[in-house]
Amino acid sequence: MSIVNPRNLTELKEYIKIRLGAPVLEINVSDEQMDVAINDGFAYYFGKQHYNGTERNYLGVKIEQPFFDWWETKDLTTVTQDDEQLIYGDGMVDTITLTAAGSGYPRQSGNGDTQLNVGTTTTSGSGEGLTVDLGSARTTQQGLVTATVNQTGIGYVVGDTFTIDGYNTDTGTPATFEVATIKTSSPIYGKQTFETQNNYLILPENVIGVTRIMKTRFGGTGGMIAMSGSIPGIGMYAPFLTAGGGNCGGMQYDLTSYYTMQQYLATLDWMFYPPISFKHNNLTNRLWIDSDNFNGLGVGDYLVIECDMFPNPEEFNQFYGHFWLREYWVNLVKYQWGQNLTKYQNVQLPGGITLNGEAIKQEAMRELQGMRDRFAMDCADPPLDACG
């Protein structure tokens, strides 16, 4: 295109320099600093959701079995509950060393936690009460990678060795560990393991916010609620529904009846197909879905997400010529120029002209603040339009 109406990064940089006084003046800003300013401008424009900077879109995710398998896994965090209230005894286990990884250990134990009693087969030792936490990582043979003390027990000595319960006894082999160090006191409440279900999806980076997860429909023609009369009170509306509203006048429906029917159907929809609760954080790009069955979705079905996304400026180069962005970029670079010049005092230009870096910086700050103050009123989508 042209520098007057930039359509790429090179033209935009030339446009900014010309607006600031080039080639009459030397603009003391490096190319890297201009890249940073342009990136900051895009971040503000998209992050604050300019009405031309976001697009409502629908993302579909095909559900496969590995997806369900991941959903059932958990991350574990072990936290010491109280270091002040202690109990005392001889031979409390402090640390252990995993001596054999074993095989056939599922990521979650059969009873739903990883605080396992040590095996009954021991090489040595006469203590009691020791339990261990198994880490979430596994070897390729589903062997253990880590094991830590959960309950210290009492009466153990360094060198005691044990097997660890929880492996598949048909196809696996037990892991073993050895008592490495012991102690004579321990927090009364020991450690507590917290579980976090991995019920999240990682969305594309250009997703700004999620507005809803589309609800599924099952049963009846076209996925709608079956009109068999089994739902209380729906039989009286069946002729209206099956006729697509064409019988409205013939059945002497007035506006009040129509409104009442719509409210009733909306209530049924909410009861039988409640909205899917979710949370979204656009910094981690995680969409947390508060459900364990996806409202009936199975393998091969699609989970459809309604979200707001920002377009790629490289694909839609009109953004480089957007009026608000151009003004914002000019002031961002002007601020950087002034910031650079403040490192020197009384910079002399040819002809005896002196540049005042602080004045340039302050002028850019005022312009930027004014644009930001007006942005929410003039340019941004209404607040609370999207979650995350």
Radius of gyration: 33 Å
Q: What is the share of helical residues?
A: 25-40%
Mean pLDDT: 80
Q: What is the general shape?
A: extended
**Number of distinct helices:** 7
Euclidean distance between termini CA atoms:
37 Å
**Major sheet description:** 6 strands, antiparallel
- Which structural class fits the helix and strand makeup? alpha+beta
How is the quaternary structure best described? single chain
Order of helices and strands: HHEHEEEEEEEEEEHHEEEHEEH
Count of spatially separate domains:
4
Keywords:
six-stranded antiparallel β-sheet; 26% helix; alpha+beta; three-stranded antiparallel β-sheet; single chain
Write a structural description.
This protein is 26% helix and 28% strand. By secondary structure, it is of the alpha+beta class. The protein folds into four domains: 9-54 and 312-378, no CATH class; 57-73 and 198-216 and 278-309, no CATH class; 74-196, no CATH class; 218-272, no CATH class. The protein has a six-stranded antiparallel sheet, with no helix packed on it. It has a three-stranded antiparallel sheet with strand order 1-14-11, with no helix packed on it. Helix 1 crosses helix 6 (323-341), helix 2 (31-47) packs across helix 6 (323-341) and helix 6 (323-341) packs antiparallel against helix 7 (357-378). The two termini are 37 Å apart. Mean pLDDT is 80; it is low at 109-123, 219-230 and 242-246.
